Amino acid sequence: TVPYAVHIHAKVSVARKFKLDYYRIKDILLSKGYNGFLSIEYEEEEDAKTGVPKFANYLFEVFK
């Protein structure tokens, strides 16, 4: 289904017990031909005004 997807969510998992491996996720998506959008799903305790930009910068680094 990846080749048909146009949008995926990137969940912030800073305070969670598990960590998402976005480098692995990127490799899987690109190997399946994903060329769509990525949105941030932010539900952390840190204020979104500071937390979202931090996570966005991280994702830019991963997906560059």
Write the topology of this structure.
Blueprint: E1 7-11, H1 22-31, E2 37-41, H2 48-63
Please tell me about this protein's structure.
The chain has 64 residues and is an alpha+beta fold. 3% of the residues are buried. The chain has helices spanning 22-31, 48-63, and strands spanning 7-11, 37-41. A two-stranded parallel ribbon has the order 1-2. The chain has one domain.
| Overall 3D form | elongated
Strand order of the largest sheet: 1-2
Strand content: 15-25%
Main beta sheet strand tally, sense and closure: 2 strands, parallel
Rg from Cα:
12 Å
Oligomer: single chain
What sequence of helices (H) and strands (E) makes up the elements?
A: EHEH
The chain-level mean pLDDT equals: 88
Approximately how much helix is present in the residues? Answer: 40-55%
Domains (count): 1
Number of helices: 2
Ranges with pLDDT <50 over ≥5 residues? none
How far is it from the N-terminal to the C-terminal residue, by CA? Answer: 23 Å
Which terms would index this structure?
2 strands, 64 residues, two-stranded parallel sheet, alpha+beta
Describe, in short, the structure shown.
By secondary structure, the chain is α+β, with helices and mostly antiparallel strands.
